[in-house]
Structure formats: structure tokens, C-alpha cells
Specification:
Layout (H helix, E strand, L loop, with lengths): L1 H10 L2 E5 L5 H9 L5 H5 L5 E5 L4 E5 L5 E5 L6 H18 L4 E2 L3 E2 L11
Antiparallel strand pairs: 1-2, 2-3, 3-4, 5-6
Amino acid sequence: MHDRIERIAAENELLYVELSQLEKVDRQFLVERHLISREHAEGQNARAVAIDCREKFSLMVNEEDHLRMQVMQSGLDLASVWEQVNHIDDLIEEKVAYAFHDRLGYLTACPTTSAPA
């Protein structure tokens, strides 16, 4: 997973960061910028994040879910946000096989929405 996500990051001008390589203050900065969750910052397992240069998108690896994608954009243009998430998801799916069933759909999906605390 690491190599595949890192390749996607390199091809799409995303910064890929192993959280274990960051100091606590740097992880806290990412939490305050809403780029990772507090749980992700404090986790003990192998975990990472890919962040776009404008800080509008982040892909958390091994947070609560295996992959958690988020797009942050002001306003109410949900179609635009959906297009961004869908595009990134398509890039990932080109390199990573998701658990999918023709009738049931994605078997490990957990679509949630949350507002920054």
C-alpha cells in the first residue's frame, strides 16, 4: 500500500508523509489544519498522509479506515467536491484492488461526513 500511495502522490503533486517520522508538534499542526484527525496523529501503528500543495485534500492511510479521503472546500458546491474525491479515488483504484461485489458494491466502504471540531 505504501509504495502505491506514494507513487500516486509523486504523480499528482501530493506530499506523502510517514507520521512516525514527524515530531509531535508537527503532527499537531496537521490536526489543527484539519489534514489529519487527532486519532490519526496519536495512533501507534504504521500510518501516513498524502496532502495536496493547497491543503484542500488529504488521504489518511491507516487511520480508523484503511484509507480516508477528505476534500475541504468552502461554499456549497458539492458537485465539485464529489468530482475531486471521485478523481482521486479513481487514481487509487488504478493501483489498488478494492473489495468489490457486483451486487453489493464496495464491501469495506464507510461513507461518513464530519465537520471540523
